[in-house]
Specification:
Blueprint: H1 9-19, H2 32-41, H3 50-60, H4 64-68, H5 106-125, E1 133-142, H6 149-157, E2 164-175, E3 178-188, H7 194-202, E4 208-218
Antiparallel strand pairs: 1-3, 1-4, 2-3
Helix pairs in contact: 1-3
Amino acid sequence: MAFGDLKTDKGVAALDNFLKDNSYISGYQPTQADLQTFQSLGKSPNVKYTHALRWYNHISSFSPAERNSFAGGSLPTTKTAAPTTAPAKVEEDDDVDLFASDEENDAEADKIREERLKAYAEKKSKKPALIAKSSIVLDVKPWDDETDMKAMEKQVRTIEMEGLVWGASKLVPVGYGINKLQIMSVVEDEKVSVDLLVEEIEKFEDLVQSVDIAAFNKI
């Protein structure tokens, strides 16, 4: 198991850390990798593991038949530790000694400090900015039980925006033979407005009665 023993806090913590930056174990929709991890976990994670709990509750919302129909997926590989005999390589910012002592005169020491400060600034500037994302589950409600739900989902998925990725979907009964479409999406917060996304879906007014946000989680 890529996360270790999921019956232990260490294993759950590893899973929680992985799901901090990922919606699913493999890709952008549930796969057999999610099902395998879900079964290995066995029970709902402690509330302190917020990302793992969010993922667990989402996978729990699928029926056993739906879970078994998940596409194939692979578990993330674990990273192997570097050989202990290899010389240490300075990578982390904390390893850069900006004010190291020097046996040369003060002018030479100042020159060295300036060079190190410049190198440090260049290294920081090359680090990619963190992209804030959210996982959103939308409830799309039809007008009545005669609405073509497949046509509705097809129309919803025609909406394309930079920073928007559609995920898994399912039909959820709401009563009187009417189902609602529950569909997941992952959006980049700076590029996609949730209100605009809802408005775009509601433009399909021949099929869509209303749209509600069923779940919203930062990832």
